[in-house]
Amino acid sequence: MTKQFEALQAIPRREEPYHIVVTAAHHDDIEFGVAGSVARWIREEGATVTYVIITDGGAGSNEPDMARKQLVDLRYHEQLEAAARVGVYDVRFLGYPDGCLEATLALRRDITRIIRETKPYRVVCQDPSTIFVHRAYVNHPDHRAAGEASAYAVFPSAETRPIFPELLAEGYEPHKVGELYLNLTQEPTHYHDISSTIDLKMAALSAHVSQIGEGDDFENGAKKWLMQANRDGGSLVGVEYAEHFRVLKFDEERESWFQEETERREREAAAK
Ligand SMILES: [Zn+2]
User: Fold this and answer.
1) Rounded to whole angstroms, how far apart are CA atoms 140 and 246?
2) Which one of 62, 79, 139, 174 has the minimum C-beta count within 10 Å?
3) Residue 25 lies in a domain
4) Which CATH number does the domain housing residue 218 bear?
5) Exposure of 184 in the CB half-sphere (CA atoms within 13 A)
6) pLDDT tens across 129-153, in order?
7) How close is the Cα of 177 to the center of ligand 1, in Å?
8) What range does the domain containing 186 cover?
């Protein structure tokens, strides 16, 4: 275990049942990124979860004979199945065109509406600041747009009364979110042990047959790759499998930021 990540391992457990909203640009993003954590929060903490799939998934095939409408329908059902396999039965599809997503006010309003309606303690979204991932690839612009609209829906839109007065007219009162978890991040603050739910995560992922195939194609392709990625994450904190997040906590005392930053710098200095 490297020193730098020693203190980041545990995500504090909540005692009271609570609600989580997870947003993502595409069908299968949640299964790749955070479904192991979602399964733990549901099974071990009694959390309830809403998934928000922002695009229609219609760009998920390069096959010339795959009709867009046919693909959209297929992926809708795959996503419902994937969600159910970890215990999520509230899945919202916003239907924005796949591949051309922008962080518009209309999108931010749509996400704000769901936050005000379902009143989550925690929102999980994609880190909008990730443009390039190491030296490996360019992050999909849909992921960044989804993350930006979601983060700004959490703050300031969900909690600020004068923003989107049309939502007040629809009956949606302001709601303050407690925590924001960013996945697909280059600046993780937490590695979450998912060893107890890695099998559920893979079962959920396997529902996306149109994207990752089935049988040997799945076992030796997406599953093998993702198991290794989560194993690599786990090895940083001394557990078998982990997912990582940048975590923002809005309900803690302001002083803790300085304390946290001081401790982080001390850990980095000690690790050198
Ligand atoms: Zn994606």
Assistant:
1) 19
2) 62
3) yes
4) 3.40.50.10320
5) 30
6) 999 998 889 999 999 999 999 999 9
7) 24
8) 15-271
